[in-house]
Design a protein that fits this description.
By secondary structure, this protein is of the alpha/beta class. The chain has four domains: 4-190, 2-Layer Sandwich (Dna Ligase, domain 1), CATH 3.30.1490.20; 194-337, ATP-grasp fold, B domain (D-amino Acid Aminotransferase, Chain A, domain 1, 2-Layer Sandwich), CATH 3.30.470.20; 348-474, 3-Layer(bba) Sandwich (Glucose Oxidase, domain 1), CATH 3.50.30; 481-680 and 754-795, Alpha-Beta Barrel (TIM Barrel). The strands form six sheets. An eight-stranded parallel beta barrel has the order 23-24-25-26-27-28-29-30, surrounded by six helices. It has a seven-stranded mixed barrel with strand order 15-19-18-17-16-20-21.
Amino acid sequence: MKYIKTFSEISIEDIGLVGGKNASLGEMYRNLKSKEINIPDGFAVTSTGYWSFINHNNLFDNLNSVLNELDTDNFNNLSLVGQKARNEILKAEFPSNLREDILNAFTALKKLTGNNKSFAVRSSATAEDLPNASFAGQQETFLNINGNDQLLEACKKCYASLFNDRAIKYRIDQGFEHMKVGLSIGVQLMVRSDLASSGVMFTIDPDSGFDKAILISGAWGLGENVVQGNVNTDEYLVFKPTLYSAKQPIISRKMGSKLKTMVFKNFTNNVSPGLYNGIVNLDTPEKKQNSWTLLDNEVIQLAKWGLLIEKYYKTVMDIEWAKDGVDGQIYIVQARPETVYKNKSITSYTEYTLKNEGKIMCIGSGIGNRIVSGKARLLKSPKEIDLLKKGEILVTERTDPDWDPILKKAGGIITNQGGRTSHAAIVARELGAAAVIGTGNATDTIVNGQEITLLATHGSKGIVYDGYLDWKEETIFLTKQDKPKTKAMLILAHPEEAFKHSLLPNDGVGLLRMEFIINNAIGIHPMALINCDKLKNKSTRDKIENLTASYTNKSDYFVQLLSESLAKIAAAFYPKEVIVRLSDFKSNEYANLLGGDEFEPHEENPMIGLRGASRYYSPLYKEAFILECKAIKQVRELMQLSNVKIMVPFCRTIGEAIKVLEIMKSCGLERGKDNLKIYVMIEIPSNAILADEFSNYFDGFSIGSNDLTQLTLGADRDSELLMDIFSPFDPAVMKLTEMTIEKAKSSGTPVGLCGQAPSDYPEYTEFLIKNGINSISFNPDAIIKGIENILKAENKPL
């Protein structure tokens, strides 16, 4: 067959003949099936067939003539020109030998796979998936194809889709000549994901470029909903270094709403046809909305395949997968090089900080690591391109490749639907635009013309605020610095930003604030989860029931969300040390958590009340502390992130230390076992005075300079009236700091300090270095300056 190549005959060298999509499928089919990766069989109609079709119908000059009518300045007639070009294709006829080859190949494929199967017909441009031009999504795909007539019609529509409005505009933007780009067609066995689930996998975190994680997204039904951004997907993050060794290498998961399920039309009688042949998009039943689309073992299997494909291609990959609801197997249906980070060297990034916050309009997934302001422009269709002025923020239900010509004008993108692997997210990354994807309600809460600020700097979380807000920008250059002898570590609280901050020069995380995770990721008082059925406030009980609907045991909600948040940070810095400080809320802060007001005492001075170690053995909180321990144990043992260490805050006495360590031991967190190190904060004068005794119970010290200053001087650190008194340079504070370091050195106990002073004051860094501090921990925006101060101090003659 002159115009046909089966997948078993295709390699990556055949891009000019079968296009990037088919070349990749053939390459995998030939070389990766032996590694037990499931890839559906199929064949390609080569680009030779396309040119035969063009020449047989004398279309070359006709199409050139139509395309020359295009206004390439404003593209005002793009829609008209595109339609005329497509009509030229659709009214043409197949040459008899091409038609015969296609049908013969189809007959052979059906005989091989079974006559009761259906097929997917995909376009594959010869300029597709190139390093500098992906062409992804520019041409059409047709699903659930049965019979010769349907196949030929789908093939002709694939040819016509080479002249979609978006494809015409894309070629002009990329500098390709229209009539030098050919098209191949892939005919592939249809995976019955309409009866199961499907999605996308990146072998890199697509937002930060962190290359040790695999992101898998999924939804119920056919994969077009995921790719086109019709739904908010489930997301799973898998850690590559422990993929084959850990019992649980999934370090994070996020359940999407999955409101729609795309299925074959013949499974219902009361719906109208959808975009594709015999395809409809149905409402997802509530039970399935609240269920995961993949089992853990399936996520792990997919991740292993992703790693094998990445290794084979020697580059990070963008992969489409589908689960067959009939045979229960998962299949890889497409793979291409990831386009944003593939050849990108990260030498700097910009920190954006809002100076003030406004009313929140909606929340979704943040893309682009930027903050932008602009007028909102609500559009229902890409046909409304003229309504969007350059720099305005596009607000719409979702985007697909038809929106591409308009997206370059937008100052930002906000959608109701879509996940981090959807079309809108991918295009935003490629354009370097800020986006908030999958808000669920943006088109309801934002008014056309409204002034808004879009924040997409908190990792995977994006927020849209009312009004134009002020922010500051600071570019951090990741230049190669000399490495100081003293460890320079980070102070972190937000898992969403961990991958980005891991790019900074650092020796690990000296302080991970657990209470920020409990507040932001969980939001529910752990005792309220343990005692949900006993809560007096019905409204609170209902909210908790709703949030924990997919959990049989409500305590598991706390453990899972906490463990996955901790794991994301531990993975980002693996194998460097990550010191997790156990929760250090004060009672008034705990009371602000959902349900917290029913479990927290009223204290006149919470700053020196029931906090830190005192809380962990108190009957008021001990059960909740056990959940904290359970989460850390899960991170260290099941996820094998043994770089996690533990730090006990606000431990007033040796007696408290003994009580807390005993509880931790009963939870399976025994000091020294499996190389577990447990540190203590030095933030109370008693800690410094008895540092030699505390060293018998802990493996390391971390001086909390703010609390130590406050409690040494009896000065509220938040009081403007006492600003002149509150100082880390006070002789009493410096004496206690010096005493701690000296006693730590004599006992061989590592000692560090967490605080702002070493980056703000070179003389304070000099004081710490002179006394022999082992490590200093900085906030991310201060670590570059902090390292400079350390190096100056270390190089200063004694």
